[in-house]
Design a protein that fits this description.
Enzyme class: oxidoreductase
EC number: 1.5.99.12
CATH topology of the domain at 230-468: Vanillyl-alcohol Oxidase, Chain A, domain 3
Pfam families: Cytokin-bind, FAD_binding_4
GO molecular function, one term: FAD binding
CATH superfamily of the domain at 230-468: FAD-linked oxidases, C-terminal domain
Distance between the termini: 21 Å
Strand order of the largest sheet: 14-11-13-12-16-17-15-18
Number of helices: 17
Keywords: FAD, Flavoprotein, Glycoprotein, Oxidoreductase, Signal
């Protein structure tokens, strides 16, 4: 490690001198401190630890390009971009190189500029390391907001666009990668390229959902729309899975209807643990009168309930929102008297998960292992998945929320690198569990990890045809199987834009062909 550190330090010091960064000393860009390196060695998943040689904090996209160029031309080290560190399986880690901290400085010192809103054309230009919550704050000053979201806003723009970026709006607007006009990307050759549908289009589509394999996103131009002021947030419960999925699929089929004839957000979650219904996002349920699964008709259904979660956005001046909601709810087959509604500002709804985060942090339950598993399940097999997983493998303890909601495939651009099931409607099933050492075996990391393996084995043996979202594999053959027909093109793009395979090695898709010990010190 000491040798690698010395060699990379020499290379970056030369980079600083070469590009004339006279306003900053080397330590302002290259961080070797224990705290900086330790922070970049772990991620939200806390399932793995990989220590980089150094951490690099760029002031601009040119800094990123010069670093990558140095890595490929004179020194031979890998480069991984890190946003908010919310990966699960070390995807932003690198053992033989430098982690680029893309997050914008919070101390007011020199760094990338903030979001720039174009009101007339309804878009915003943002740094790749910008948090979505800061994008929201900036655009709301102009009465605008992005159209497609993630459930958690403390993620970086470059991070979500490298995967897909999904939430309950995806049925209507598609994932976040379907709402991008233009990107600036530093390729694995150290080239800074602007790309879009019409300019460097192969790079544009490869990078979107490309898991960081082809370049580092330094700027994104995001589509905006007029921002609503308030949200009516509704939950209804089901004990019958077929009725639940039928209603979800009906609601997403309304995507082309006028806004008055559809909901703006459609999600759902599975409840197999009675404690979860009263404790998770419990503002919907009164602690003085807790909801009992047995009282809602689930006792003959393996004690499983399904919650449909929907919203209606509106402006303060709107007078018809209640009538519009009532008209839509009349077509749904949920359990009578199981409707729970709250009304809140648009910003509060979008930032809802952060409030839960603060509560968990206060109890010491945030920085724990998160063996999450996210799957895309084809509509034709979702009933079988319900029987085998929700009513089978999971038992009656979940250790965290289980999201389930459908999306329309035609809202996803097939030219991007994301892989989805080959059906028009497919479901996200997200098992968002936390491992705790509290004496309960069903909440241990070993138990939950084994349960994930059993779920994947069940899907494989039953030929469910799932695709992992935020995928994690350990062999290239598994990656080839994951990409299927897209693999040949994915490989071709890798050879075109990162031929030395130095980028995002933590994904374990390709092995770098550089040798950090074979350095030309010239």
């Amino acid at each position: 490690m000491a040798t690698k550190l010395f060699l990379i330090a020499i290379a970056i010091y030369r980079l600083i001198v070469t590009v004339g960064l006279t306003t900053l000393g080397p330590t302002e860009l290259l961080h070797l401190s224990t705290d900086e390196v330790e922070s970049a060695s772990v991620d939200f998943g806390r399932l793995t630890r990989t220590e980089p040689v150094a951490v690099f904090r760029p002031r601009s996209d040119v800094d990123v390009a010069d670093l990558v160029k140095t890595a490929t031309s004179t020194s031979g080290f890998t480069v991984s971009a890190r946003g908010h560190g919310h990966s699960i399986n070390g995807q932003a880690h690198t053992a033989d190189g430098v982690v680029v901290e893309m997050g914008r400085r919070r101390d007011g010192r020199n760094g990338p500029s903030g979001p720039k809103v174009n009101v007339r054309e309804e878009y915003v230009d943002v740094w790749g390391g910008e948090l979505w919550v800061d994008v929201l704050r900036s655009t709301l000053e102009y009465g605008l907001a992005p159209r497609s979201w993630t459930d958690y806003l403390y993620l970086t723009v470059g991070g979500t666009l490298s995967n897909a970026g999904i939430s309950g709006q995806a049925f209507n607007f598609g994932p976040q990668i379907s709402n991008v006009f233009e990107l600036d990307v530093v390729t694995g050759k150290g080239e800074l390229k602007t790309c879009s549908e019409k300019m460097n289009s192969e790079l544009f589509h490869a990078v979107l959902g490309g898991l960081g394999q082809f370049g580092i996103i330094t700027r994104a131009r995001i589509a905006l729309e007029p921002a609503p002021q308030r949200v009516s947030w509704i939950r209804v419960l089901y004990s019958n899975f077929t009725a639940f999925t039928k209603d979800q699929e009906y609601l997403i089929s309304l995507h082309d209807k006028p806004s008055s004839q559809k909901f703006d957000y459609v999600e759902g979650f599975v409840i197999v643990d009675e404690g979860l219904i009263n404790n998770w996002r419990s503002s919907f349920f009164s602690p003085k009168n807790p909801v009992k699964i047995s009282s809602l008709g689930a006792s003959n259904n393996g004690d499983v309930l399904y919650c449909l979660e929907i919203t209606k956005n509106y402006f303060d001046s709107s007078k018809s929102v209640d009538q519009e909601i009532d008209a839509l709810l009349k077509n749904l087959d949920f359990i009578p008297a199981s409707e729970f509604t709250t009304d809140l500002p648009y910003v509060d709804f979008l930032d809802r998960v952060h409030k839960a985060e603060l509560k968990l942090r206060s109890k010491g339950l945030w920085e724990v292992p998160h063996p999450w598993l996210n799957l895309f399940v084809p509509k034709s097999r979702i009933d079988e998945f319900d029987k085998g997983v929700f009513k089978g493998i999971l038992g009656n303890k979940t250790s965290g929320p289980i999201l389930i909601y459908p999306m329309n495939k035609h809202k996803w651009d097939e030219r991007t690198s994301v892989v989805t099931p080959n059906e028009e409607v497919f479901y996200l099933v997200a098992l968002l569990r936390s491992a705790l050492e509290n004496g309960e075996e069903t909440q241990t990391l070993e138990y939950l990890t084994d349960q994930n393996r059993r779920i994947l084995k069940f899907c494989e043996e039953a030929k469910i045809g799932v695709k992992q979202y935020l995928p994690h594999y350990t062999t290239q053959q598994e990656w080839i199987n994951h990409f299927g027909d897209k693999w040949d093109h994915f490989y071709k793009m890798k050879m075109e834009f990162d031929p030395k395979r130095i980028l995002a090695t933590g994904q374990r898709i390709f092995e770098s062909i550089i040798d950090v010990n074979d350095v030309a010190l010239r």
